[in-house]
Specification:
There is one protein chain. The protein is α/β, with parallel strands linked by helices. The protein has a single domain, classed as Rossmann fold (3-Layer(aba) Sandwich). Helices cover 35% and strands 24% of the residues. It contains six helices and eight strands, in the order E-E-H-E-H-E-H-E-H-E-H-E-E-H. A hairpin with a 2-residue loop joins strand 1 and strand 2. The longest helix is centred in the C-terminal third of the chain and has 22 residues. It is globular and about 45 Å long. The two termini are 29 Å apart.
Length: 198
Amino acid sequence: MKTFLTILLFGQVLLAQPASSQDSTRVLIVYHSEHGHTAAMAEAIANGARAVPHVKVKLLKVAEAKNQEVLAADAIILGSPVYNANMAPALQQFINQWPFEGSPLRDKIGAAFVTAGGMSAGEELVQMNILHAMLIFGMIIVGGQDWRSPFGASAIVNEGPFDTEKQPGKVEAYFLEKGEALGKRVAETASRWRKGGK
């Protein structure tokens, strides 16, 4: 049975909607993925965010995402494979169309995740590119769980013991755990922020 929150002004009903939608923290995860590796990280991040009570997660490919989802979210987590030390063009184009006038994204929580072919192959540069873009919009940045993932979550898919590039969607559990931790931390931070930092 759903409870409803009704807002009254001068004795007239202005709005009636399920109270649960008002109480939920909304986390939006948008990503671009060529071979399924970034998608696997996105799923791990979503699982971490869903583990936090009263959090609603929307997971979208960048081609599906619209500005209305960005505006409705309390937290936005963006993911990309590394493209020559840059984010995927599709993700950059998505960011470029965000509304700017009036600062509608100000004080939303932001975070980043990437997948890269090798270690030191540009993953931190891409994370920082995403985070820099979020800072331009006035967002509040959240990093990973500890010093091993300060800029967000990342995964290596084509070097040494982490070579899963020829297995579409396969990412080592170690990196998926980092993704889950990022999702959980972002959801927890966004939830606290909505409650006034308590």
